[in-house]
Amino acid sequence: MRITWFGHACFLIDTGKTLILTDPFDSSVGYRVPDVTVDLITESHQHFDHNAHRLIKGKFEIIKDSGDYEFRDVKISGIETFHDDESGARRGRNIVFVFDFDRFRVAHLGDLGHIPDESQIKHLKDLDVLLLPVGGTFTIGPKEARKILDLIKPKIAIPMHYKTKYIKFDIAPVEEFTRLCENVRCTSDNFIDLSEELKSFDRMVQVLNV
Known about the structure:
Elements: E1 2-7, E2 10-14, E3 19-22, E4 40-42, E5 61-63, E6 67-71, E7 74-82, E8 93-100, E9 105-108, H1 118-121, E10 129-133, H2 142-152, E11 156-160, H3 175-178, E12 184-186, E13 191-193, E14 204-207
Parallel strand pairs: 3-4, 4-5, 9-10, 10-11, 11-14, 12-14
Antiparallel strand pairs: 1-2, 1-13, 2-3, 6-7, 7-8, 8-9
């Protein structure tokens, strides 16, 4: 299975049977809009930088609400959370998606704006890969992201939603998060191929490059 980062909170998860795209953005964000044909799109919330499915190719289905779903070779759980630390009073709700594949368990936190409570954390156990925002301002920041790593303990954490040379938002760069972490690996690639060997990793932070 391959996970490819297109920037911001947008990833392509390729199982070999199914192509899943998370949180597609439009060109105003600063990254190139993904030129991909997909089967399924998940949207954590309905802001322009996370719900631009109209720009994506394919006869895809969309999941944008909490609940339990099955699509081909994957089981999906949408967990209700908030886009801020005031129970959604400022920015509304956010859906965390957990993907259960045959061999791997992956979670995408969307624009999570708070530390998950105990009832939410219980759905995020035994993760092979955690895709988590780290840039702050609109989401959790570097310190909160590190706290979440300590709570969830994923095997691999891939940061997202942070400042790069492309993005126009005033958010923190990934270095403000990675300097709080151990076992950080940076790559020039925008993808990671998952294998059974990767499941033996312990708390590795993998920084991808668009």
